[in-house]
Amino acid sequence: QLQLVESGGGSVHAGGSLRLSCAASEFAFDSYAIAWFRKAPGKEFEGVSCISRNGDSTNYADSVKGRFTISRNNAKNSVYLQMTSLKAGDTAVYYCAAVHVPVGAACRMVMGPNDYWGRGTQVTVSS
In the predicted model, what is the mean pLDDT of residues 39-62? Predict the structure, then answer.
């Protein structure tokens, strides 16, 4: 079974940066589209960003567009989320999720029953 481990979270001041990583156990990592979600206290899960199997297509929530950048290195079975200009509203537990999709499929920031999930990494942004 595919396992995902998030890392890179921490506490930063507003305006700071963090780089989150999502490492996968599966050697066929390039068969999966990856999405980042976040869960803030009192809020629903929010899709943050996603990336297609080969990284040629990405998508971002309006709230993070221009500040966050998603990328992947399939040789390392990893996906990254570079977060800059962080705001207090970015405080949340960040999760990566993987969906096995056909080649060429676009990514979606939608939770599904067949998704694999990591345990999350905490991001705290102080104002």
Answer: 96
